Amino acid sequence: MKISVLASGSKGNSTLVSDGETNILVDAGITKSKIEKHLAIFGLSLDDISAILITHAHIDHFKGLEAILKKKSIPVFASEETATSIELCLCECIKKGTLNIDWNYFSPGSQFTFNHLLITPFEVPHDANGAVAYIIEENGEKIGIATDLGCITNSVRYHLQGCDALVLEMNHDMRMLKDSDRPEMLKIRIASKLGHLSNDQAAEFLDTIDASGLKYLFPAHMSEDCNDLSCVKAAILSLEKKFDFLIVKTGQEGPTPLIDLSVNNL
Ligand SMILES: [Zn+2]
Ligand SMILES: [Zn+2]
Prior knowledge:
Layout: E1 2-7, E2 14-18, E3 23-26, H1 32-40, E4 49-53, H2 65-71, E5 76-79, H3 80-89, H4 91-96, E6 103-106, E7 112-114, E8 117-123, E9 132-138, E10 141-146, H5 154-159, E11 165-169, H6 174-179, H7 184-191, H8 199-208, E12 216-220, H9 229-237, E13 246-247, E14 259-260
Parallel strand pairs: 3-4, 4-5, 5-6, 10-11, 11-12, 12-13
Antiparallel strand pairs: 1-2, 1-14, 2-3, 7-8, 8-9, 9-10
Helix pairs in contact: 8-9
This protein binds zinc ion (2 copies).
One zinc ion is lined by residues 56, 58, 126, 128, 148.
């Protein structure tokens, strides 16, 4: 499989996963034109996208969905709660009949296949009903995508074991968040168990799971004013376990390289 994080952060999230035949987007939280622009870098267009998986109904995860689906009908996979919340936001177009969404509901925790991909959505603690993270597997390769979660649960720990590539939220550096000018209520929400994962929480989690096969870590949903790559690296370097993976920087400005998991780039 190949993976590129097309965009990551509070302004919009989308990740491309491809096995060469099937191309899927996990979230469509940037505009349609940005998604098209980022896909074009890899010689792809919306016509090549076979499915869209949505993690949850926060706008930074579905901002581009309406425009994409008005251009092309693509099956959308989500929990029923997420689908309901998104339909409420898009109800005007749905009522007018200008938008018809081909929903495919799943139950978090149960696996399904899409073409050759084995997909496992699982619940994460976040302040959106029905929020999930995803595992995508094929031919013994495993990708984990967990971008908005306030804390690590046993289920998160269980599912994210043994990934080859992991898109893991490293939202903020605790000190930078504390010292920031953000309103107190927002700081409390971000740091809560239904908010966003800090660098230290993510790093400690990596220290406790089997990450021996991990080749690529994409620190995701990094706050622009309460985090930076040096803080992310410092949190990981402080761990007792020594890791052998590459850290792939994600952000809003452009996609990461399209990384082929079957090629050893280390
Ligand atoms: Zn969210
Ligand atoms: Zn988000």
